[in-house]
C-alpha cells in the first residue's frame, strides 16, 4: 500500500514505512480489517489537496483518491471581557429639581464589590443627608453593579464634578450644573 499526495510523484508512505521527512505523516494499519489509513497530525493549510492510495497485487492495481480540505482554526471572536464603567444622567438641572445619575460598572470575573459617589472630591453618603438617595443593583451573571444617585431639591452648591468609583478603583466622571 502506497500513500502519496497527487501533486507529488514521491510516496509519503510505502507499507508502514514513511518516506517523508516529517513525522506528522503516519500510516495506521488494521490487520483484521485490511485498512491502511493515512494519518496527518497537526494538519496545515498546505496539507490540503488530493491524496492517492495505491494497492498492488499480482492480479490488479487499485487507486483511490481522497480530497483533503483543511480549514483554518476558528478563532474565538468573542472579545475578552474587560472591566468597564459608564455614567449617565442629566448635565443641567433646574434649581429645586432632582439630580439623577446612573453608574454602571462591569467587572472582569465578577461585579465590583461596591460603588462610591463623590462630588468635587468629597464622598457622598445618605447618612445625615435626607436629600441624597443611593440605590445599588447587582447582577452576578452579567458581572455588573448599577448605582443610582438621586439628589432631591438641587441647589447651586450641588453643581460640580460627580465621580463614580468602583471597589477596584475604576472611575468615571460627569459634570452637573444646577441652573438658577
UniProtKB/TrEMBL annotation:
High-level lineage: Eukaryota, Metazoa, Spiralia, Lophotrochozoa, Mollusca
GO biological process: synapse organization
Species for this entry: Candidula unifasciata
Domain Ig-like: from-to ranges: 1-69, 83-177
Gene3D superfamilies cross-referenced by the UniProt entry: Immunoglobulins (2.60.40.10)
CDD domains: Ig
Matching InterPro entries: Ig-like_dom, Ig-like_dom_sf, Ig-like_fold, Ig_sub, Ig_V-set, Zig-8
Designated name of the protein: Ig-like domain-containing protein
GO CC annotation, single: neuron projection membrane
Lineage: superkingdom: Eukaryota
